[in-house]
Amino acid sequence: MVQQTEKSQSLFERACKVLPGGVNSPVRAFNAVGGCPRFMARASGARLWDVDGNEYIDCIGSWGPMILGHGDPEVVEAVQKAVVDGMSFGAATGREAEMGELISQLVPQVEMIRMVNSGTEAVMSALRAARGFTHRHKIVKFAGCYHGHADSMLVKAGSGVLTGGDPDSAGVTPGAAQDTLLARYNDLASVETLFAENPGQIAAVIVEPVGANMGVVPPAAGFLQGLRKLCDQNGTLLIFDEVITGFRLALGGAQEYFGVSADLVTYGKIIGGGMPVGAYGGRREIMSCVSPLGKVYQAGTLSGNPVAMAAGLTTLRKLQRDPGIYDRLAQKGQKLAEGLRATGLGTVNQVGSLLCLFFQQGPVTDYESAKNSDTAAYARYFQHMLSRGIYLAPAQFEAMFLSDVHTQEDLETILAAAREFANQ
Ligand code: KE4
Questions:
Q1: Is the distance from the beta carbon of residue 243 to the nearest atom of ligand 1 less than 6 Å?
Q2: Which DSSP state fits 270?
Q3: 391: domain range?
């Protein structure tokens, strides 16, 4: 099926003159899959339409926020009402207290929370709070996990950094990265070694409770529990980066889903309902270190923005009212995973509504095994699916994100296109 792309092409040429790579976030440039990136015009439900009028089943949902689907009527109405009262005040508003109360209600481990404007900012701030609270410097992260683009996290990072082929970034100085220690996902021994080599120096271990930036890599049985135990034994804080898993796996996120409590947690995506929102929170004694209560400074002009809070609050309240969504999402994820496995195209990992088809036959349990995937084959698959009106992540090392408004028919359409590719 040949799609028209003239308008996307024209916009891309214009954008490339004024935006690095023509985009405001690298993965959107389609560098990993080739061809012209599609410039989107509008979305509704589980659908996207690009500027040339091509329609797609959306399999990324803005990389996670759109769990209710695009243009949820209640969210749109809440935003429309909020914007009339004021776009931003730079002063405290009641919605921010409501958001903190709601998240604490849904996630009991979050006794206190601070709103910021992105997942990156949430992670940056959580790391600073952990260092301020423990008076320690070092942080353990896992190869292949992506925690946003703060300097200290761009070490063997996942997502677009991994897609770009160099899992580190230029411009990150040795000084910025020297306190970042690298462990192997699902390998507790690699963490034990770092604790033994750095006694009393590790402020925090930060982990994606489900790796979703090296493709989807579930935690092995006992992995998260093991991290909790090692952190307790060493006076180190455990940080769950739930920018993707928060409010996606369960109302209580990965902490509820896996039954493991973190000391701090970071959020983004879903808590903004599509608007720019991040947050970090956790134990009151830790968060009490954050300015103006404590000496860990962090600030933000648009933090707790009233319009963004309206979108996020409405989204979370809708999830709270209908917790059955999580079973529905898991059923869809399982159906899609089983169908994709049946094509024989590769290894499929799935947790709830997060899944990834790796173009390789081996088990994918960490960064090293994920890297064995045939990214050229993924690119051909991506282009085939795009031509069939299915918008996947334009890179192998990302996740598919399902929403509550993807229908069984949508899933069948995706599977039919994947089978067609497999049988070529
Ligand atoms: P943002 O700064 O992009 O809001 O959040 C950074 C971040 C932090 N932690 C995790 C676990 C994340 O997945 C992310 C961002 N996710 C990517 C998708 N893999 C965002 C997409 C993009 O960079 O364009």
A1: yes
A2: G
A3: 6-71+324-422
Instruction: List, for residues 19-48, the tens digit of each pLDDT value.
Output: 999 999 999 999 999 999 999 999 999 999
Positions marked catalytic: 146, 241, 269
For residue 139, tell me if it sits in a domain: yes
Radius of gyration of the chain (CA): 21
Nearest CA to ligand 1 atom 18: 63
* 3-class state of residue 418 by DSSP: helix
Q: Check if 242 has its Cβ closer than 6 Å to any atom of ligand 1.
A: no
What does the pLDDT average to over 84-94? Answer: 98
CATH at 298: 3.40.640.10
Cut 0.90: pTM above it: yes
**CATH code, domain carrying 44:** 3.90.1150.10
Shared domain check, 294 and 204:
yes
Q: How confident is the model at residue 102 (pLDDT cuts 50, 70, 90)?
A: very high
CA distance 153 to 279: 17
The alpha carbon dihedral of 104, 109, 115, 116 has a sign of: negative
For residue 45, is it within any domain? Answer: yes
